[in-house]
Structure formats: C-alpha cells, structure tokens
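tool_call: predict_structure(chain=1)
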Amino acid sequence: MMLTLVGLPFEDVRIDPKKWPALKPTMPFEQLPLLELIFNGKKKRVVKITQSHAILRYLGQAYGFSGRNHLHNAMVDELADAVDDASRAQGISDWPLVLIGKVSIPEEFGKGLDKGAYFTAKVRPSMEKQAKMIDKFLEDQEEYFGGRTVT
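tool_result:
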C-alpha cells in the first residue's frame, strides 16, 4: 500500500513455499517481507531491508509520510509497536494457526470445542482489550494522528 501511495513502481514477488527453504538463508535475518532498493551510481548498489516497520519507516521518511518532527515520529513508532504487540497478544497470535489446524484448541476448553467458541472465549476478549488501549491512545492525540498530515 505504501508503495502505491507514494507512486513508486514495484514488483510484488510472491515466494513459492517450496522454494522458501533455499531462499531463506539469502535474506537479511532470514525473513520476509523484503524491500530491495537498487541504487545506480558510479557503482550499482543493492540494499535489502527486511522487517515491516523498518520498511514502512524508510518509505515514510523518504517520501514525506513521516511525522513532522521527532515527537510525532516517536508517536508513530509507539503506535506501530502497540499494534505489533496486539498481534502477538495471547489468543490473537494463535488464532490464524488454530484456523488452519496447525495449533490445536487447548484442552482447557474440553474436547469438541469449535473454532467459533475458541474465538469468543480467547480471541475476542484479547482483541477488545488491545483495541481499547489503541483507541485511548488515538483519542488523546490531535485531530489527525501525527498532526494534520498523513503519517
């Protein structure tokens, strides 16, 4: 989305899961997503950036979508980290794996508990707690988060 927002041409490359084990060691931190930047100067230089937040921060700063000062940048980082924490919260982090059957529904729920009941008991309360904290943070900010510009 950010690349489209700033109007940069890009190639959206999807990795075949069967090819990932061979590619993984060639990636910084052995992770995706990856933003590959090519600089053509006296000598061609390729820079690979992984980590979603690092990629977004780079693009935001490079193309005028970061905060208007250090304080706003810190607030943007704070919110990004809070959303990341929320995605790792108990219940929420397991949910995608429960959906595809990679993680069993904990036995504490007894046998035969369906995914909907697990969602209601574990995921929804965690989401509501995280959302309330993020909403409170945003409500305490200026009219537009990070000022009156897109950040």
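agent: The two ends are 13 Å apart (CA to CA). Proceeding to next step.
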